[in-house]
Q: What sequence folds into this?
């Protein structure tokens, strides 16, 4: 019999002896990045599946907008809040069928427009999903997202995947770099046929046309005139919702169409 007990073997204190699933250094190593991506994707997916969330209406917009902010900020906040309520009341999020909910408001989970849209859903008594991202300047989730549907991601790619994969519609309020990033990501998916007929509505046409000269893209042959038809413009929450109704997003029966963006990426 060995004079040295297995309980005192020096290997017990070394990283090699740790269970792989409990070895934090190993799990956070570059070699395990693929596993971390998969785990981060699956965790949110399983939670949404358990909650019966089949489809979403995604709302983008600036985190800098405030309810009492300067200029048009207060108007944008109020309209995003109203849109969250209208979409929740009329889109089906309040009326689950066999435990399945459609057209649930989903945002990036932070302040500003994201807070306003989530607040509108909360006003209606409907759930609101928050897909938060971990940032150097820590972003706190707004208090209006549903607690069990408030997530935090490390990888932007996985967050974007979850924002897109259940989306029945995208409504974009004025915003900055992050808003533009998400908008053009989904425009590219639409243009390239990697995403179904998901309507994209930009709220406050004057803002968007002053920011981007869309027709210049056509004039230089960068996109076709038909590509610009992927965009719709609305002035307020009510007109944005009217455009979604025209596109068939609102539930007309107890058996809604399969979300266009639910196909495998």
A:
């Amino acid at each position: 019999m060995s004079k040295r007990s297995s309980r005192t073997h020096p290997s017990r204190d070394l990283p090699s002896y740790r269970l792989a699933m409990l070895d934090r250094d190993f799990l956070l190593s570059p070699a395990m990045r693929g596993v971390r991506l998969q785990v981060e994707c699956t965790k949110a997916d399983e939670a949404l599946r358990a909650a019966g969330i089949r489809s979403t209406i995604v709302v983008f917009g600036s985190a800098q907008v405030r309810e009492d902010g300067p200029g048009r900020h207060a108007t944008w906040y109020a309209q995003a809040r109203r849109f969250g309520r209208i979409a929740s009341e009329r889109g089906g999020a309040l009326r689950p069928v066999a435990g399945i909910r459609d057209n649930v408001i989903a945002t990036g989970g932070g302040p500003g427009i994201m807070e306003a849209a989530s607040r509108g859903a909360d006003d209606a008594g409907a759930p609101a999903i928050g897909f938060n991202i971990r940032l150097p300047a820590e972003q706190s989730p707004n208090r209006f997202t549903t607690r069990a549907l408030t997530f935090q991601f490390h990888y932007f790619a996985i967050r974007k995947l979850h924002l897109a994969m259940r989306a029945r519609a995208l409504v974009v309020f004025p915003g900055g770099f992050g808003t533009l990033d998400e908008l053009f990501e989904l425009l590219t998916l639409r243009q390239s046929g990697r995403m179904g007929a998901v309507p994209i509505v930009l709220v406050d046409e004057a803002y968007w046309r002053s920011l981007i000269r869309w027709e210049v893209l056509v004039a230089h042959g960068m996109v076709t005139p038909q590509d610009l038809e992927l965009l719709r413009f609305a002035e307020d929450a009510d007109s944005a919702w009217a455009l979604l109704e025209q596109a068939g997003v609102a539930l007309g029966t107890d058996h809604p169409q399969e979300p266009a963006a639910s196909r495998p990426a």
Notes: The longest helix spans residues 73-91. Residues 196 and 260 are 4 Å apart (CA to CA). The first strand starts at residue 56 and ends at 60.
